[in-house]
Write a structure and sequence with these properties.
homodimer; 159 residues; alpha+beta; Arc Repressor Mutant, subunit A; 6 helices; DNA-binding
Chain lengths: 159, 159
DNA sequence: TATGTGGTGTTATATTATAACATAACGGAT
DNA sequence: ATCCGTTATGTTATAATATAACACCACATA
């Protein structure tokens, strides 16, 4: 399965993700406005997480707004609708690479190059569910993040 | 297994945890100074996460320091040595309830009453490890947090 | 045309965290 | 005993992240 640290045709993956977002918004009567679309695009261009203020700096240059609420509103929309995830460990945001699929995302964060890859691990949800059930806890959302070294940075950082 | 939302003898669990911390520090030549000890104590008194500035407010009343670095330094020490965990989702801190045991902690966070319970789920580490291995990723730390409703709040919040 | 809903613009502020530099306390090597 | 490295504390200032609150606008529809 495509787990993400490999090279790939990036322009295609951006285009696909934008199209998916557009058609989903159309079907759900959601407005993918100029600023929202641009924020999603900026995040799709990276395989790393961007801070809200990094994004705001770009929006600002492009005349799309200068104040924090501009970017936080766009991010709220994108997160609420599953196009973007917040990486809690980094207080930063990353485009969803499995849009449309309901999922319990797992993020692998390289602390050297800051790459962020979103993996799918269905069994994980099951195990968390079992632990939660034993405690009588009702899970609504999960945050699962692993911090470490991506394959490339392991090679360049020999033990 | 004791998963934590049940009632228990709280004064005993605080005392035990402090003693464990003390003997560990003694054996490792770590200094559990007055402020560090007090911060750990404050966190042990709660089964919820406290923000750094909440803790600082108490320290300040007690004459243990008034500036942010005071509490962040104490928290850094306690986190680095495994006595306290940071709850990333809340930007807050919670005393470790399994001190001394090497573990991949899983937190269940009630968004109604703010209770935080730390569970142990060994299999989870395994599954994350498998996913990471498939991606060639080397895990160093993990953040696993579930947000939802604790048993008590489920009862008081009928569907 | 009135009214509700959702989106934007803007000012101000809250919350969380760290940089940087000075001082102190202690232990071991010379 | 003094020098020096290490660790901890005190303090000022500021950085980084996030939200409250209110005014305005556009559009749909009753």
């Amino acid at each position: 399965m495509p787990l993400g640290f490999e090279k790939h045709d990036h322009s295609t993956c951006i285009k696909d993700a934008l199209e998916t977002a557009e058609s989903y918004c159309a079907s759900e009567n959601l407005q993918l406005t100029k600023t929202r679309r641009r924020v999603l695009e900026l995040l799709l261009h990276e395989h790393k997480a961007l801070g809200a203020y990094d994004i705001l700096a770009t929006l600002s240059k492009e005349g799309l707004g200068t104040q924090p609420p501009v970017v936080y509103r766009a991010l709220d929309f994108l997160v609420a609708n599953g196009f973007v995830h917040k990486i809690e460990k980094l207080n930063a945001y990353s485009a969803c690479t499995h849009p449309g699929q309901s999922h319990t995302p797992v993020f692998m964060i390289c602390h050297k190059c800051n790459a962020v890859v979103e993996a799918q691990t269905k069994p994980l949800r099951g195990f968390l569910g079992v632990a939660a059930k034993a405690a009588g806890f009702l899970i609504e959302r999960t945050v699962i993040e692993a911090v470490g070294l991506c394959p490339t940075c392991q090679e360049n950082t020999p033990a």
